Amino acid sequence: GKLSNTRYRVSLTHQTNPGVVIGSGREGSGVMLSLAQKALNNKLDVRLNGSFASFVSTILPSYGAESQFENLFYQAFKRNTTDPVYNDQGDYYQSMRDFAYYNPMAILGYTSNVVTTSYVNIGVGASYRISNHLLANATFGYSNNNTERNYVQEPEAFDRVGDVSYTDVEQNGIKTNLNLCVSYSKAVFSNSNIDVSLGFSNRVYSSEMNRDDSGSEKETYSQLGSQSVYAKASYAYLQRYSIGALLNKDFSKTSFRY
User: What does each C-alpha distance from 35 to 42, 87, 125, 137 come to in angstroms?
Assistant: First the structure.
């Protein structure tokens, strides 16, 4: 939509994607917002963009399992499809050969692998026209991605392996980005132009992982940060020929914790 000095846009989404195996799939919702506002006789321009989404996925063990014995598709193709699903006692049939393998129905019935993912992205920007030739800009961005995985493999159908479940796996990634810039642009004579910019940027990325593996807690934390200061100038002639110069200084910092 649009008002006299305001432009905005809002969208809502919802997805339901069933998987190829019963019990698997992905479902989630999201919202997006975009807003732009002019003020101070159109000298000030403020922008806001944001999005949020959350998805829940049920992933059955078809790859990356603890071993081939818990791989659903491996067992489905490996087994003779005429093998009985249940034994005489009504339990899932465990093994019928000299090697260990598991009935795909047991994998479906006794394995839970639920992954919850959420995304948050926010961007704010502003520009102010100080004069006809001087412009100031500032932008800030923030993003946060969280993933929580709960994997439970109950030992009822996997007595040869036992309970190899792990639960409460959380991963968090946060990014922030700040940019400040002042630029000067002026036409010289009637066929050339001069541009000069001074700027500063700060970027930080941090991630954290907590894993409770059969009662054993593990934690990893890392943070990467960098700052930049720059100055650049350019001269253009006839909008065809140009020459420029750039000075840049970077600073960085890294930290880890286990």
Answer: 15, 63, 10, 17
Cβ neighbors of 223 (< 8 A, separation 6 or more) are 204, 205, 206, 207, 253, 254, 255, 256
Helix H or strand E segment including 77: helix 72-78
- Cα separation, 181 vs 200, in Å, equals 6
Taking a C-beta distance cutoff of 8 angstroms, is the pair 143, 107 a contact?
A: no
- Could you report the per-residue pLDDT of 58-105, keeping only the tens digit for each? 877 654 444 555 566 666 666 655 556 666 776 655 544 433 455 666
Query: How does residue 247 score in pLDDT terms, banded at 50, 70 and 90?
Result: very high
Q: What one-letter code names the amino acid at 76?
A: A
The span from the CA of 52 to the CA of 36, in Å, is 19
